Amino acid sequence: MDRAQTALEFKHSGSNCAQAVLLAFADEMGMEEQTLRQLGAAFGGGMGCMEATCGALCAAQMVLGRALFRGAPLAADARTLLARFHAQTGAVRCRDLKGLGTGRPLCSCDDCVRIAAELVQQRLEESN
């Protein structure tokens, strides 16, 4: 399954960035669609409405936690995911990604969703 394409389809059908990533991994999350929509609802426009972390990245971290947690923190996985996302997008804050204040967007929402989903999919494949 191409999770990135699935996430983009959810994004284009009215979900915010976080919801799109969560819904693309519904099977890994083991939750109903409505619950995933609720979990991601406050992350549209990033945390704090573009002031902080990209919603797609937040959702990617949630998916990792749900899929890989075995009783110990996932700090190394979380750091690696954040670093890879930053390397591909140029930032992790929604505000910076959208170019607010600079007028120079670094990455579109579609690309953030796609990259976040691809990174999670890669990590989950590595763990299998």
Structural features:
128 residues; mainly alpha; single chain; 0% strand; 8 helices; globular
SSE diagram, text form:
Layout lengths: L2 H10 L4 H8 L1 H4 L3 H8 L14 H14 L6 H15 L4 H5 L10 H19 L1
Outline the structure in words.
This protein has one domain (3-127). The model has no long low-confidence stretch (mean pLDDT 94). The longest helix is centred in the C-terminal third of the chain and has 19 residues, at 109-127. The protein has helices at residues 3-12, 17-24, 26-29, 33-40, 55-68, 75-89, 94-98, 109-127. The chain has 128 residues and is an all-alpha fold. The protein is built from 8 helices and no strands. Helix 2 runs parallel beside helix 8 (109-127).
Q: What's the number of helices?
A: 8
The overall average pLDDT, rounded, is 94
| Straight-line N-to-C gap | 15 Å
Classification by helices and strands = mainly alpha
User: How many domains?
Assistant: 1
Unreliable segments of 5+ consecutive residues: none
3D shape: globular
- Summarize the biggest pleated sheet: none
The topology string of helices and strands comes to HHHHHHHH
Oligomer classification = single chain
Taken as a percent bin, the fraction of beta residues is under 5%
Number of strands: 0
Helix coverage percent: 55-70%
Determine Rg (CA atoms, Å): 13 Å
